[in-house]
Amino acid sequence: MQVDHLRRYRATWLVVGVAALAAFLILLRADATAGRSAATLKACPTGDAPYKTIQAAIDNAQSGDRIEACAATFREQIVIKDKSVTLVGAGRTKTTIEAPSSLEAEGNIVVISGSGVKVELSGFTIKGPGPGTCGSILSGIFVRDDAEASIHK
Length: 153
Known about the structure:
alpha/beta
């Protein structure tokens, strides 16, 4: 009888200890992300910007970050997946995302995807002509998989 009591006592404390450790780790992770302030990443194909392409800045961004693109034409395809960011150009007449000579992602110039992803997009012109003949571009901006996009001038 005494042995059973000790086993139950040890098992109870083991469960309590594991639960406390799990709670501590969750709080530690939440604290580490809560203290982080949003970063601003700059993209420009010329000059001394840290990123030469918008996609490189997106790839290095974390959710909540702001990406600023200089006044230039970026010939690239943009894919924003599983992170919420703000993407800002220098103005719709100054910053252009133009379809590159080869398009992947089903022929879309900008793709925003991922459940819960929210993207703010402003200050860009997005244009073709894209590769090949007419009809090679499916869309300029394609939002899918429960993502959201707020698109402004």
